[in-house]
Amino acid sequence: MDDTLHELLAAYRRGEPGVLDRLVPLVYDDLRRLARRHVGQWPNLTLDTTGVVHETYLKLVRQRALDANDRAHFMAICSQAMRQFIVSYARQKLTEKRGANPLIQDIHGLDIPVKGEAEELLLVDQALRGLADVDLRLVRVFECRFFGGLTEEETAEALGLSLRTVQREWMRARAWVKDMLSAP
């Protein structure tokens, strides 16, 4: 199975059409676990695991080709796509709550308690965007560990870094985000 996955990832890097449809079933359970970790961090956003996986798939389809070297690297890319979707979803919910799009709120008739959690997620995302200007690798480590729930070892494998580097970068990234969130 690893040979098949490796071959499919190579074909995906080349941009061969239809490869993603053969690749995703091989990692679908892993994608669901990853999505469950993301969704579990923000329960008030009322996202479901399957929806996050499907949105990730759609994002990958639109990209046509990715430079994923192995399963771990592919999962790190998927984790980043999931984060981007969840942040967009939180922005949309905040917009609806503030009345900028009352029609959608009236159609659904939902009063979802997302404000505090959505704002927190957007602040974390804003801190990460600021950190990306300083050190993109710190952002990738933070995404893998915080959003993806990957272990230090999995993060090291996914990003092609040593375990010690991941440990050091994780401490630096957490400190940066904490400082940004506590700043007035």
Helices and strands, with pairings:
Blueprint: H1 2-13, H2 19-41, H3 49-63, H4 71-97, H5 102-108, H6 115-134, H7 136-147, H8 152-159, H9 163-182
Helix pairs in contact: 1-2, 2-3, 2-4, 3-4, 4-6, 4-7, 4-8, 6-7, 6-9, 7-8, 7-9, 8-9
GO molecular function: sigma factor activity
Keywords: Sigma factor, Transcription, Transcription regulation
Family: Belongs to the sigma-70 factor family. ECF subfamily.
Task: Please give the largest β-sheet.
Answer: none
Number of domains: 1
Helix content: over 70%
Q: If helices are DSSP runs of H or I spanning 4 or more residues, what is the number of helices?
A: 9
What are the low-pLDDT stretches, counting only 5+ consecutive residues below 50?
100-115
Distance between the termini: 51 Å
Structural class: mainly alpha
Give helix and strand order, one letter per element, not per position.
HHHHHHHHH
According to DSSP, the number of beta strands is 0
Shape: globular
Q: Which band does the percent of strand residues land in?
A: under 5%
Mean pLDDT: 79
Q: How big is the Rg?
A: 17 Å
In short:
The chain has 184 residues and is an all-alpha fold. The chain has one domain. The longest helix is centred in the middle third of the chain and has 27 residues.
Structural write-up:
- InterPro entries: HTH_Sigma70_ECF-like, RNA_pol_sigma-70-like, RNA_pol_sigma-70_dom, RNA_pol_sigma70_ECF-like, RNA_pol_sigma_r2, RNA_pol_sigma_r3/r4-like, WH-like_DNA-bd_sf.
- With 184 residues, this protein is mostly helical.
- It has one domain (2-182).
- Helix content is 78%, strand content 0%.
- The protein has 9 helices and no strands.
- Mean pLDDT is 79; it is low at 100-115.
